[in-house]
Amino acid sequence: MKGKRTIYLDNAATTPVRKEVLEAMKPYWCESFGNPGSITKMGIIAKQAVKKARTDIATLLSRRPQEVVFTSGGTESNNLAIFGVVKSLEAEGVKVSDMHFITTNIEHSSITECFLELAKKGAKVDYLKVGENGIIETRDLRKTLKSNTVLVSIGYANNEIGVIQPIKEIAKEIRHARKCNQGGTSALSRGSTLVSIPLFHTDASQAGLYLNLNVNELGVDLMTLDAQKIYGPKGICLLFIKFGIKISPIIFGGGQEMGLRSGTENVPLIVGMAKALEICRQGSAFGMSKSLALANKKMIILRNYFWHKIQKEIPTAALNGDLENRLPNNLNISIPGIDSEFTVLCLDEKRIICSTKSACRRDEAGSAIVRSLGKSEDLVKSTLRFSLGEDIMQKDIDFVVNNLKIIIQKQLKQTIN
């Protein structure tokens, strides 16, 4: 096996760090390693690095630096968005039991676990069901919105099946509900925060490399972005908080990050995230530039070739989620009769890296996301997720499919015997 190239197809879990990102981070590990809260020269250098990174990211977002809050990861950003809104409303005298929330039945665990916790405290939570294609109907959202709905949290692109939700249309429905709340009598008391309800949060962690992230165009109030999904370092993420939106901190200490996320800023990682975003967006706004659209087109062609090759060689394979409204690099399939975890391990022996489901869901039997699509338990427990990276070539896909076919044939033969 030594010397053979590893074919990495698990970029939805995490991506490698670009060399340029490592170079940008390097000075802040051992040279300019000062605490950004210090008044010394080293501290000032570190503080300026954080300020520049925040400003650069805000420029890409076409927003203000004060709207960018750095956290330790997607889980913390999602928790801050949800519980931060709740705590802010509680501070205005609103009871959790009077609050209503809307999400979907295919969200990341860092979203669903928050709402399960809020439900224990008496909050009302509605889970919009997705269709077989994995996408919600905006009319279902319209019917579910209430006068006491305080937050809607719907992921931009799903981390397992890669389907893309109609974020702009969702935002329109929420703006309409907001106008109705302002024009009528809300079930909640009128506080400074409540004027803007319902708020709209989206976890865009999987969307960073491929989709339009211009928050002005999307119409979101809160947005999560994770560095480890865009060829940046692990352990650093951001939460965009639209100016005027009130949220309360969930971590307390020295009051860093505008008082919303206490703790010494992780300077190298913050610098690394800014550099990763700069590279993947070519320094332009977070819209769909021509170069990004072209890169997406090439990835889609490669992804579709992958799927057609699987259909030809493994005709029992079933696609999970819509093929069109999907991240360009995502392919999630089920192959009836196989042990998906064993298959992943067999592929790993061939230096082919993929997964069965989200790395954040370790104890579930099968994919809860695929189950939510209405698939049979056989398909739920036989899922494989392939998420392509920038270095994948057609010959790599041929190698993967050939090996996958052999591994599956052996499994099915043993099962019959």
How does the SSE layout of this entry go?
Elements: E1 7-8, H1 19-25, H2 27-30, H3 41-61, E2 68-71, H4 74-91, E3 100-104, H5 109-120, E4 124-128, H6 138-144, E5 149-153, H7 167-183, E6 199-203, H8 215-218, E7 222-226, E8 237-241, H9 267-280, H10 290-313, E9 318-319, E10 330-334, H11 340-349, E11 352-353, H12 368-372, H13 377-380, E12 383-387, H14 394-416
Parallel strand pairs: 1-11, 3-4, 3-5, 5-6, 6-7
Antiparallel strand pairs: 2-8, 7-8, 9-10, 10-12
Helix pairs in contact: 1-9, 3-9, 4-5, 10-14
How would you describe the overall organization of this protein?
- The protein has a seven-stranded mixed β-sheet, with helices on both faces. It has a three-stranded antiparallel β-sheet with strand order 9-10-12.
- The two termini are 31 Å apart.
- The protein has 14 helices and twelve strands.
- Mean pLDDT is 92; it is low at 189-193.
- It has helices spanning 19-25, 27-30, 41-61, 74-91, 109-120, 138-144, 167-183, 215-218, 267-280, 290-313, 340-349, 368-372, 377-380, 394-416; strands at residues 7-8, 68-71, 100-104, 124-128, 149-153, 199-203, 222-226, 237-241, 318-319, 330-334, 352-353, 383-387.
- With 417 residues, the chain is of the alpha/beta class.
- It folds into two domains: 7-16 and 289-416, Aspartate Aminotransferase, domain 1 (Alpha-Beta Complex); 19-280, Aspartate Aminotransferase, domain 2.
- It is globular, with a radius of gyration of 22 Å.
